[in-house]
Structures
1.
Amino acid sequence: MKFSWKIIGIIIGCLAVTSYIIAITVIFSGKSAKEICRGVNIVVTDSASANFVTSYEIRQLLKESGISMKGVIMDRLHLSQINRLLSNNSYINQVECYKTLDNKINIRVSQREPIAEVMGITNYYIDNKLNKLPVLRGKPAFVPIISGAVSDTFLQRDLFPFIQFIHQHTFWNAQIEQIYLPSDSIVQLVPRLGDCIINLGTIDRYEQKMNKLMALYQHALNQVGWNRYSYIDLQYTNRVICTKRNLEQQSK
C-alpha cells in the first residue's frame, strides 16, 4: 500500500488547527468567566421612529431593579433575568441580550408601535397586535382616537381590521383624526382637514367606502372646497350623499 505524504500532511494540519481552536476556546471560556464586565451597550433599534422607551430609561430600570453589570464577573451575569425584566415593559416588543468577546453586555430592544388610542374610563393605546399600551405622560402618539360606544368585542372582532387598514394607508393615517361610534355598530370618522362628519354606517365593505371617499376628495372636494359639506354619508352602495352647510342634500 502506498501512502501519499501530501494527504498525510493535510490530515496532520487539520488536526493541528482543530486542536488549536479547541484549546483557544477552552482558554477563552475560562478567562472570560473570571474577567469582569467592562461595560453595557444599550440600543433601541427603532428610536428614530418612536420614543416610548429610551436607553436611559432602560438603564434606570435595571438600576432600580438592583441589576448591576459593569465590574461584575462575567460568569455571574444572568442574561435571562435581564430579558424577563425588560420583556415586562408594555412598550418593549423584543429583547436581545448577549455577551461580547471583549467582555461587554449588549442589549438591543425594539418598541411596540401604537396605531390608535381608545378613549374610555381609562385611555389606552393599541398596537398592531391588539396589545393594550398605557398612555405615557409627555409621550403622545399621533394616532387616530377611538371614542363613543366602544366595546371590547366590537373593537377586537369588527373594528380592528379597519384600524389596521387606516394605519397602513399613508393618506388615511394622516387624514383620519377620530373614529367615533355613536352606537356599537355604527362608525363615523372625523377628518383632520375638512370640517365634517363622515358616516360609514356599519363597518362592512369599509375598503369600498373609503375608495368612494377618496374619489370624492380627488374629483369634487378639490374643486368646491373641503369645508363645503357638513356631513358625508358613505353607507349606501354605489353612491355618496353629501349635506351642504345650508342643509340642502345632494348626491355625488
2.
Amino acid sequence: MRIIILSLLTALAFSPSLQAVEKTTPADLKTAARTFLKDFAEQQKDEGYAVTYSLGNIDSRLNLAPCPDDPSVRFSSDPLSTTQPTLEVSCSGQRPWRMFLSATVEIRGEGLVAARPLSRGDRVTESMIDTQPIVVNSVRRSAVTRRDALIGMELRRSVNAGTVFTPDIVIQPDAVARGDHVIIVARSGPIAVESRGKALANGRIGEQVLVQNLRSERTLRAMITAPGRVEVPM
C-alpha cells in the first residue's frame, strides 16, 4: 500500500499539469506586457493622443521561474522618442529574473508645425504655429507639444512651412543684451538690495554675464534671473 501511495505522489509531483503552474510562460509575459501597453494607451488618450501597439515575438520554449505576483513591466527606452521602445519585464520573487521584449508603439496626435517659412533668429509668435496630424514619437528628438513652450523662443535655423517644431530648432532668446541697463539685485537670504547697472555682454536666463554698477563703477559677475534683471550674492 505504501509503495502505491509513494508512486502516486511521485507521479503527481512530476505531472505536466503541476509543472506548468510552477513556471512563468510566454503567455504570462504577453498578458503582462499587453496590460501595461493598454494602460499606457489609456493614459495617452487622456492627453489627446491615440496609441497603437504590438508586441514582438517571444520564444515559445522560454521557461522562467514562477512569479508570486504579476510580473512588473516598464519601458526601458523612452516611448515618446521612438516607435520601437523596449519593454523590461521582471519578477522580484525568490528566484528573480528579468528580460526584455521588443514592441512597436505609435503615438498619433496633433503636432505643432511652422505655419510658414521662418528665418533664423525669428521670435516665435502664435501666428507662426500651425497644427497637423503626426506620429509624435516618430519625429527625431521628439516633438514640442505645448504652444506655450514655443511662443517667445528664438529659431536656431531657418525652417520650411510644415516643419515639426522640435527642441533643437528653438532656443531661449537673450534676456539681456550688451549695453542694456539692468537692475542688479544683491541678495543674502531674505535681504535684497537693488541698484542700477549696465550689461557688458549678451546672455540668457540662467547664464552669468559681466555687469557694471553705474554708481560704484565696479564690474561684477551676475546671473540673469529675468529680462533686464541680474543677481549677485551680497
